[in-house]
Design goal:
The chain is of the alpha+beta class and about 300 residues long. The chain folds into 2 domains: about 130 residues, no CATH class; about 140 residues, Zincin-like. The chain has 11 helices and 9 strands. Strands 1, 3, 4 and 5 form a 4-stranded antiparallel β-sheet that branches. Strands 7-9-8 form a 3-stranded mixed β-sheet, with helices on one face. A hairpin with a 3-residue loop joins strand 4 and strand 5. The longest helix is centred in the N-terminal third of the chain and has 25 residues.
Length: about 300
């Protein structure tokens, strides 16, 4: 009669947890290192605008494993909701997935945060697949293509200007058009509660400037963050916000931002959460309120 396998000790289990945690940290460090290059930063920005439902940390992980990722979902969502089948042999893209557990079940894990009702949020490895790894299921596949973004020199997004002015008023800022010294296209004066935009811009370019300055008005100033760091945060947030609205500002944003990321390899690790928070609030502010009210009703 075969002997029963010996139960793993608590120390062995802890060693496995430590090893798994170290592997995740190594992969996260690899994704951050990727962003030290201009091309890596460009890839992160592109991924953020397409993968905006994921946290900045998970976007970095996705980009480090699949640089051209454009649309990712879990195996089940691809199959059950979207009508696509992951091809045999494709390797999943690891991300961190939050899970709410009882406190006693989380005692062996030090990675997590407290939650209400005596529970704890822990993060475990999960896997998603990019659109390049799946094939459509005949008769079930849903369209995935996004509309082509509008260029910055047009007037297709003039409707955003009024929404920007409305949000500025909610923040307690006035908006005016006036010549700006030094050739800048816009400025945010926290002391006077004023946002100035240069005259003579196209509607799309004006919307870009307004969103950039609104991010400053939300508390990202030179005194609190320093000039280069503040500009990096607000332009990243503006890029992501306008991409969600279908306005292409990559040609203006990416070269400027990539230079900062190349000089400061910690910029995204330090500020990614703040960039994401600002972008999400700006997206909510620029949403069509009549559509949102209809959906709520």
């Amino acid at each position: 009669m075969a002997a029963k396998p010996r139960a793993r000790t608590r120390a062995q289990k802890q060693n496995d947890l430590d090893a798994a945690r170290e592997r995740r940290r190594a992969r996260l460090a690899q994704s951050i290192e990727l962003l030290r290059s201009s091309e890596g930063f460009r890839g992160w920005l592109r991924a953020m605008k397409r993968l905006h439902r994921y946290s900045p940390q998970n976007v970095r992980l996705i980009v480090s494993q699949c640089r051209e990722a454009s649309f990712v979902a879990s195996y089940r969502r691809w199959q059950k909701e979207l009508g696509y089948q992951v091809r045999r042999g494709e390797k999943g893209i690891m991300i961190f997935v939050p899970r709410l557990v009882r406190v006693d079940a989380a005692r062996e894990s030090t990675e997590g945060r407290d939650a209400p009702d005596g529970k704890r949020v822990i993060f475990r490895a999960g896997y998603v697949f990019d659109r390049s790894q799946v094939e459509p299921i005949p008769g079930r596949a849903l369209p995935l293509e996004a509309p082509e973004p509008a260029p910055i020199d047009g007037d297709t997004h003039a409707h955003l200007i009024a929404r920007c002015e409305r949000f500025a008023a909610e923040l307690g800022f006035d908006v005016e058009r006036a010549p700006i010294e030094g050739g800048a296209l816009g400025c945010c004066d926290h002391a006077r509660r004023r946002i100035a935009v240069a005259v003579g811009l196209s509607a799309n370019a004006e919307a870009h400037v307004l969103v950039h300055e609104l991010a400053h008005a939300m508390g990202v100033g030179y005194r609190t963050h320093g000039r280069e760091r503040a500009e990096c945060i607000v332009e990243c947030a503006a890029y992501l916000t306008l991409a969600a609205q279908g306005l292409d500002v990559e040609a203006a944003s990416v070269p400027y931002l990539a230079g900062w990321a190349a000089e400061d390899g910690e910029v995204l690790e330090r500020d990614a959460a703040e960039i994401d928070r600002i972008a999400r609030r700006l997206e909510e502010a620029l949403a069509d309120r009549s559509e949102a009210a209809a959906e709520a009703a």
